[in-house]
Amino acid sequence: DAKTTQPTSMDCAEGRAANLPCNHSTISGNEYVYWYRQIHSQGPQYIIHGLKNNETNEMASLIITEDRKSSTLILPHATLRDTAVYYCIVTYSGNTPLVFGKGTRLSVIA
Amino acid sequence: DTGVSQDPRHKITKRGQNVTFRCDPISEHNRLYWYRQTLGQGPEFLTYFQNEAQLEKSRLLSDRFSAERPKGSFSTLEIQRTEQGDSAMYLCASSEGLAGGLEQYFGPGTRLTVT
């Protein structure tokens, strides 16, 4: 699986959009980009995934660049409950073992 | 609550003792995964099952570790002769498998402390 690079930490004001970047320059053509998050003392939680097109669900939006070498997870209106570690994962299938990096620690500030 | 449960939630044991953890996945999920997470790190894959068949084991899974999923439902992870380096959060996840959804659902984890 391709390797990802994420900033160690980010802050976001409550109510503002949180934009979390991820670089995956060695991604293969049929690898997906997945995002999970982990709130303190809980197991990781699936957020969203995509292949080439931008995706949106009730939790977030995923923007993938045209060359697929990077992506951005957008939480449109961050709340205090969005404070968590966010993991960007590149994988051929979400039904196989996931390779987690250290993720980005997002702190939403009131 | 994702529907994946783990028991116990916390376990304190002395070095050299054996411990066993249990994971109950979402009932219709045929894939079950075990991960380990140490402080400040992301989860690391240990092993996973398709129904009762163990498909892959990580090199992290030393011979002191064994996992089973005897009837393709719940799974157990046993650690024999525990060492202080085994202290970690042990996470279980499940997914529908190839024919279903492409996300994994994680349980709350079992935190192991070896003294």
Topology of this protein?
The complex is a heterodimer of chains A (110) and B (115).
Chain A: E1 9-13, E2 18-23, E3 32-38, E4 45-50, E5 55-56, E6 61-64, E7 70-75, E8 84-91, E9 104-109
Parallel strand pairs in A: 1-9
Antiparallel strand pairs in A: 2-7, 3-4, 3-8, 5-6, 6-7, 8-9
Chain B: E1 5-7, E2 10-13, E3 19-24, E4 31-37, E5 44-50, E6 53-57, E7 65-68, E8 75-79, E9 88-95, E10 105-106, E11 110-114
Largest sheet, strands/sense/barrel of chain B: 7 strands, mixed
Into which percentage range does the β-strand content of chain B fall?
over 45%
Strand content of chain A: over 45%
From N to C, what is the helix and strand string of chain B?
Answer: EEEEEEEEEEE
Alpha plus pi helix count of chain B? 0
The chain-level structural class of chain A is mainly beta
| Annotation, overall tally of beta strands of chain B | 11
Biggest interface, chains and residues, is: A-B, 21 and 30 residues
Percentage of residues in helical conformation of chain A: under 10%
* Residues in helices of chain B, as a percent range: under 10%
Tell me the span between the first and last alpha carbons of chain B: 30 Å
Structural class of chain B: mainly beta
Main traits of this protein?
heterodimer, A: 110 residues, mainly beta, four-stranded antiparallel sheet, B: 115 residues, 0% helix, 49% strand, globular
How is this structure best summarized?
The complex is a heterodimer of chains A (110) and B (115). Chain A has 110 residues and is mainly β.
How would you portray this structure in words?
The complex is a heterodimer of chains A (110) and B (115). Chain A is 0% helix and 45% strand. Chain A contains no helices and nine strands. In chain A, the strands form two sheets. A five-stranded mixed beta sheet of chain A has the order 1-9-8-3-4, with no helix packed on it. Chain A has a four-stranded antiparallel beta sheet with strand order 2-7-6-5, with no helix packed on it. Chain A is globular. The model of chain A has no long low-confidence stretch (mean pLDDT 95). Chain B has 115 residues and is mostly beta strands. In chain B, strands 2, 4, 5, 6, 9, 10 and 11 form a seven-stranded mixed beta sheet that branches. In chain B, β7 and β8 (75-79) form a beta hairpin. The radius of gyration of chain B is 13 Å and the shape is globular. The model of chain B has no long low-confidence stretch (mean pLDDT 94). Chains A and B meet through β4 of A and β4, β5, β9 and β10 of B.
